[in-house]
Specification:
With about 110 residues, the protein is mostly helical. Helices cover about 75% and strands about 0% of the residues.
């Protein structure tokens, strides 16, 4: 057998940084915000089908925009390192917190 075929090494797992907790947390929040936006959209569709007002177009649009921003920021957090990743994580936290505060808690 040819020597170059025998020289196959097992792929190494990607190196994990020491501060991967925050990007993983922000990823979960971005995913949750996307799921929440989908639920709000479905509730609006069901409400319109039943002739009721539902959450409203502003609420639905705001949830969809917030979810989109959170996912985009999370993509940056997953691909970048250092200050850029930290700012992207903070962006996800801020968008998620603002959305929950404005539309659910306030």
């Amino acid at each position: 057998m040819h020597d170059s075929l025998m020289d196959v090494t097992a792929p190494q797992p990607p190196a994990r940084g020491r501060a991967r907790f925050w990007p993983e947390l922000s990823g979960a929040l971005a995913l949750g915000l996307g799921a929440l936006a989908a639920v709000v959209l479905v509730f609006q569709i069901l409400a319109v089908a039943q002739g009721k007002p539902g959450p409203g177009l502003l609420t639905v649009a705001a949830h969809l925009v917030a979810a989109g921003l959170a996912v985009l920021a999370q993509r940056v957090a997953d691909r970048a390192r250092g200050r850029t990743a930290a700012l992207a994580v903070l962006g996800v936290l801020a968008v998620t917190g603002a959305t929950l505060w404005i539309f659910w808690w306030a």
